[in-house]
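PT: before anyone asks, these are the final sequences, not the draft ones from last week. 1374 residues across everything. Please model them as a single complex and drop the result in this thread when it's through.
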Amino acid sequence: MARLGMVIDLKVCVGCHACTAACKATNGTPPDIYFARVHEREVGVFPNARREFLPVLCNHCEDPPCVPVCPTGASYKREDGIVAVKSDLCIGCRSCATSCPYEHRHYVKPGLLDTGYFNGELTLYEKAKYSRWDEGTVIKCDFCMDRVDQGLQPACVETCPAEARIFGDLADPESAPSKLLRERESFTLLPDAGTKPSVHYLKA
Amino acid sequence: MTASVKSGTWEDVELKTTCYGCPAGTCGMLARRVNGVVVAVRGDPEDPFSQGKLCAKGQAQLMMAYSKRRVTKPLKRTNPEKGIGVDPGWVEISYDEAVAITAEKVKHCRDVDPGGLVFATSDFTTLPWFLPSLLISFGSFNHTSGGRAFCGNNVHPVLQQVHGGFHVGPDFHFCNYLMLFGSNKGAMSNWAAVTATLEMSRARRRGMKLVVIDPWCSNAASIADEWVPIRPGTDGALVMAMINVMVNELGMHDVEFVRRLTNGSYLIRDVDGHYARDTGTGKPQLWDTADQRAKVYDDPTLASPALEGSFVVDGEPCTPSFQLLRKHLAKFTPESASEITSVPAHTIRRLAREFATAASVGSTIDIDGHTLPLRPACAHWYKGISQHSQGFEQGLAIAMLNTMVGAVDVPGGLLADTVFAHHPEFSENSTWMGAGSGMRERDGLVAAGKIATYGDSFPAPFPMKDVPNPYNMSADSLAAVGSYNSGLVSKVNVLEPKKFNDKVPHNPMVYVQVVSNDLLNEGNPKQQADFHRKFGFQLSIVPNIDETAEFADIIFPTQTQLERLDMGANNIPDTMGSTATNEYCINLRQPVVPTDYKHNVDIWIDIAEKAGFLPAFNQTVNQFLELKGEWALLPDGKYGNEQLMERWIRSMTGGKLSLADVAKEGRIRWAKSVQEKYPRPFYKSRIPVYYEYFLEAGARVKATTDALGMDWDVSRYKPLVDWYPAPGHGRNENGFELFAVNYKWPFLTSTFSNFNPWLAELTQYHPYVGKIILNRSYAQAHGIRDGDRVVAENQRGRRVEGVVLLSECIHPECVGMDHHGGSWAKNLPPRRKTMGPHFGELLDYDLKNLDIMDGAMEASPKLRVTRVG
Amino acid sequence: MSLKYQTGVRFNHHLGPQETLSFMGEGVGAALFAIALFTDQPLLAGPGILFVIGAVFALLGHLGNPQRAWRAITRIGTSWVSRGTLFISIFIGVATLSLVAGYLGMTALQQPLAVAALVVAVPVMGYAGMLLRSMRAVRLWRGPFVPLAFVAHSLATALILAWALIPLLGGAAAWLQPAAMVALVASALLSVLHLLRAERSEGVRASFERLFSGDLRTGFLVGGCVCGIVVPLVVTAVLSAFAGGIVMVLMLAVALCRLYGDFAYRNAVVIAGAYEPVMPDWPMRSSTPPAAPVACSTAAH
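LR: through. Structure below.
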């Protein structure tokens, strides 16, 4: 069975936020909601100091804490490992959002879709895109599963100018991400949380 | 995505266009349109620049076309008082009325004094042809662009002299050791940012080492193998010391390259520092050690020119220039450079050795049947070096670092983009396709060709030209070897003409702003406001009312990226850093969103018609677009932007292709030959390491300025590259002890992104954007805590206030700020909060802050930072 | 700046006072209903059910799509929200029926219904704690002590309420006072045990900092500890020394004090819940040149 996942190469990520914007543009997420983002911090002491970039997105955990807590079955995990939400089943209890240690579930506050980016005047683009979302539900990164089902890459992978993101089937030992994981030192986020993320990071 | 799945989809197409998220506008992109609305964009996988990738700025362009804060109707000012924060009292007027009012002002200016018009544009797509066409037909020579003083002032003139090119990039395909000086190349900044990032990523994966020299740990420095923090404005000293170590301590320079492809072997007369020219031909001479006599540089019998020794030619004692250079270099010891730069001497020695070792002098590579030198080490520099009052020589120094190991336009080295760019089929038709491209030559030295001078719009410093009396407000003629019309002098000149003995033209009548925003992108806005108030009439052609447009008398709304039609979208002819690609490509930007707005070219054509200079305009368009035969414009005709593009394409392809043909492909592209990609081994012309002609240039500038009674410094016209302290170097007084440094973020373009709600929102989540950044140990020693409100002020009392962020990632002698903040425009997106201070507030328009060689502006004044309250 | 998207410890911003109020309402309401049965005071059972119904409304208000709330019972197998919804629904139904049966004098029916309601009241009291416990991302809420403490606090509050209100209703139950004191001590002990036994992760340390020296300090220490435990304990212990009208006033004051204290305690525990920093605490760049002391400083503000 497939297990879709992603490998992010921190050696080449330049922290440019192309993924952040591509995700926003492709998914049309409402204001202040980012499925993909880039964390930044400093490490070291001058002059041996650096800024470090960490692009993050839903980890599509093998053992996702957000799915069992859902009281309605709106949160589910596909056969290929993608964790997604069926909006029409979601009652907006945010149990899933509370249970995600990575905070990759986002609640669409009632009114948010009417507010948009121009305080109540939706642009044509927003009108077209926001029809996808339901207010009062929780939304999240779904690895762009509509695109993946058409054989495309997730938007953040496609756009990454550094080719830092490699998407594929982690269950297939011959897939590009699997090979990289064998060749390079890697880690996942919050391994102690027991979630078994499908997003892996290659150390620089 | 899902929207289209829902019922009633009558359209779902992907259209080819070209990005304009940054002024370079290089990246081919695909816009997905569903039911008339563009719902997603992506890089065009067939485009050699974007290769299917797009950056944050490009992705966010969706928000610009559909913005609810655009200016939608022509506006007329009713409040005669102009100033920052003064309500212009806009009233909507009809398009025709706006054209009529503007045309009257423009016509009056043209009748009275065409030199009274200043044209400021950052519309780089139309800049190579439209701007000169309009200005020349109008009769003005005043061109500037938003933030021009911070552009490549010490990059382009240097490249024209060293590479014969206009833009450069490292050869990511073969480079193994890249040094970036004040540059974020490959980290989503600079031209062709997506291409460079992609190529650098691939290069680093295969093992290329990256060393970044920068006072601030930029994005490039953060991912680099080594970050070398340096005192601002001292990179030139570091580089000269590296060259000294390479040449005088290690002897690891490329002797044969220096001997044969630089003027290091030219004989210099001890008496005056000029070439020892042949009395008959006037050509510079060299000393051939084979038969122990002087020969002209192109003597076919020349066997082994001397690089060292003392010779007597025609009774005059002479020395090869390389020997003079070696002697000159000796003063740049790593120890003295360490004092200047704060970089440890052992680090300088190590960098020099690493660089020279990586350059692998002597190695070759076979490409397509040619055996070429392989020099997989190079240095690249940009804005961080350029924006200093003594940056010109620093650019020359870094170029010389590459020259010393022969890493110029060869595999692995620093490559100029379009030294030679012949389309296999259409090259004879126009410059854009390659006619007249290639290097020119004078005295055996590199002289930039037609493409690298934008058809002589940006004239190359060499061969030397006359230095006439200043003919425009920025006194460009006086920048004799850095002739990169910066527009900076024009502001100092218009504000204080007495400084120039009233001899530089200064008759401010009409100011034209086309999508550029000086007030926010350049220096002190209060001084700039005074400058703008001096103009009787200001015309602004903008999609959003920015800070500069608030001074307009008439505003025309114009198109955003997704609505525009532009052939040569990627700023041809030089294609903005196509060095990283193996192809030449002229991209087409075509409208993908229905629009009610006009292209700025169309607006100008209407104005020119009304003001009566359309025939002249048509003729100069013929000249700059090189429209020939049936495609040439008739003087009496009126041609819109689309017709111009059609004729341009027809003319440059000899009628073979139409606009529709190009629209289908999205571009005209052709593969580079080995000679086009690596031109240096195919040319005999030499690179200067001794700028002999600077002596003459200085003398001519002095003669001209003396005759005009102007006080003008010519002391820097020296043939040997030197390093000079900037105003900020030296003693600290009254606590003014921190150098200002500024930077830009990879997801923001100075003004382009201010009106973009997505990018504005993104900044809210970024830890550094808008903050005043201080080194932690400095701040702790001065009682400043993280998150304090502080004031940063310069010695003239210019000040900004903001929130401090303590960092380990900045040189302790620096205070860092990005140059995106401080916007006060009324029509910013509603969700955009303050983005911190306006860095430009701290930069005074003053002659002493001006690089007299190339017009750059000093952006590292000394500041004092104190806590508020 | 928004709490969202920080790199360091982030605090729970999904559950707040409204949700806490609902958790408390369910627990105290169910406990009150149980006490009503044991004290044979049907007039206390009504407020108990009302507490629970009020809590349900608070929960519905929390939902983004309350009209679909019925769906919440479809994942009993895994979700504590589902289980809670089920228990609460049954409890309200059975408890109300038992009251109605009692009112109508149908004693044969009333007794088994009451017992059934009593049985369901236990998971209703425990549900909130179990829900928090199931949110494994917040380490402060892990382990057995949050559910136990929440049950104990519910009982303590209900006992104090009953003890204060029964004289007003004309009844008497001498065991309420010692029982309340035992429950208070047990609540305090379990709460202390919870904090003592919580794992000392970065997130939990940050929670402690907020509870003991940060913005939640007053609510937690003064509200939760003093108003919630110390004052009720002292007053119930010394009340016999007083006589007259002051007793009644004191008892009611203590009841209110305890209600507030219970809320303050739970609210502090809920709000202090924190997520561990997502970024690893070691440099992610192995090729970084050896930095003398490598310290990770979070630049996000």
